[in-house]
Design goal:
A hairpin with a 2-residue loop joins strand 3 and strand 4. This protein is 50% helix and 17% strand. It is built from 9 helices and 8 strands. The strands form 2 sheets. The protein has a 5-stranded parallel β-sheet with strand order 2-6-1-7-8, with helices on both faces. By secondary structure, it is α/β, with parallel strands linked by helices.
């Protein structure tokens, strides 16, 4: 039986950063479910699909062949055979992913792949509904969160460090809007699993969060 760790939490809480680090330390496969949804969203944007037209999105999502590969221990997301890692962190892709992820057909396709990956490998998976829907039987569940102010500041600093222009107040508003959509969507809303441990990273360094999660996930 594979060993699975589920990490859930709102946008910008640092789930991917922490999960990657913990995966390296505990020799787990890292599965970034958000990247998988972003790949589908990227396909929709490239194809000019109206994201508010749920039927159109449901119909076209089956044409977005999303697969996962690993190169030197790093997850690579392929969209119809193309490595799209470089495009997945764009703001518009993240917003689009948040809009299409509640659509049943999109979720059905992604969850099937995620469950298959977890059944075959010891892995750590992060997202919005991993502990509640995708891997309800995961041996460890963690709900990683932080205040919207802290999450907005982190994103602002990330963008400005790359030389990109950014509006802190707009980033915060976007994060809070995404939180609301994720928590109130009809299918698999973002929420803490009953048996998940909450880790609030608002006043913690990345190193402190990593150490805390490693301790929680150790199989010893």
């Amino acid at each position: 039986m594979s060993y699975n760790v589920a990490i859930d939490g709102p946008a910008g809480a640092g789930k991917s950063t922490i999960a990657k680090a913990v995966a390296r330390e505990l020799n787990l496969i890292y599965v970034d479910t958000g990247a998988m949804y972003r790949a589908v969203a990227l396909y929709m944007l490239r194809e000019g699909v109206d994201l508010t037209d749920r039927e159109q999105v449901a119909d076209r999502c089956i044409r977005a062949d999303v697969t996962i590969g690993y190169e030197d221990g790093v997850q690579v997301v392929f969209l119809n055979g193309e490595n799209v890692n470089a495009f997945l962190r764009a703001e518009e892709v993240g917003e689009a992913a948040s809009m299409i992820s509640p659509i049943p057909q999109v979720r059905k396709n992604m969850v099937k792949l995620q469950k298959s990956l977890a059944a075959k490998s010891d892995c750590i998976m992060d997202g919005r509904d991993i502990g509640t829907c995708v891997l309800p039987g995961a041996q460890r569940k963690i709900y990683l969160t932080a205040s919207s102010d802290v999450r907005a500041r982190r994103r602002y600093e990330e963008l400005t460090a790359k030389g990109e222009s950014a509006d802190l107040q707009k980033i915060k508003a976007d994060i809070e809007d995404r939180d609301y959509r994720d928590m109130h969507r009809e299918i698999s809303p973002l929420k803490q699993a009953d048996d998940a441990v909450v880790v609030d990273t608002s006043d913690m360094t990345v190193e402190e969060v990593i150490a805390s999660v490693i301790k929680l996930c150790s199989r010893e």
